[in-house]
Amino acid sequence: MTGDPIARNGLSPRFWEKKPLAKMSQKEWEALCDGCGKCCLNKLEDEDSGEVALTRVACRLLDDATCRCAHYDTRHHFVPDCIVLRPDNLDTHAYWMPETCAYRLLWQGKPLPEWHPLLTGTAQSVHDAGISVQGWTLSEFDIPEDEWEEHIIEEPT
Ligand code: SF4
Ligand code: SF4
């Protein structure tokens, strides 16, 4: 697989259908990410109903051309509360994660979508399917938090 920022070479075919999430190697776990960038959009949570609304206002470190974190390895220096997703904390986080997120889908016992890079062999397929955040986010540097409500969107699915 060329041009994919996530290492997906050398993995067993359709390993995600054969292994539970908790048994995956670190490489397999990382390879599940489709690179959509939707988890890096800011959300608004209603304290009473628990409902989560997605906004187009992205984390300061998101590069919306690539849909990748600009400083993934050192991100906690800049964004201390960025979640490190693991098999043992999916229960806690699945409710706010994007509907198409591979971690959420597998946690729900659902298959990966046909545009997932593990199935198509190219990272571009998530952008071509219109699922990623490529080119349409606003930076939280430019939008104060009290205006995020004006930028609520429907999740592209
Ligand atoms: S929403 Fe899920 S699949 Fe998409 S970038 Fe985030 S972790 Fe990866
Ligand atoms: S720090 Fe990086 S990985 Fe975390 S939400 Fe921001 S852009 Fe996404």
From TrEMBL:
NCBIfam families the record matches: PRK05170.1-5, PRK05170.2-5
Q: Name one Pfam family in it.
A: CxxCxxCC
Organism taxonomic ancestry: Bacteria, Pseudomonadati, Pseudomonadota, Alphaproteobacteria, Rhodobacterales
The protein depicted here goes by the name UPF0260 protein FDT80_07920
| Protein family (similarity comment) | Belongs to the UPF0260 family.
Q: Which PANTHER family does the annotation name?
A: UPF0260 PROTEIN YCGN
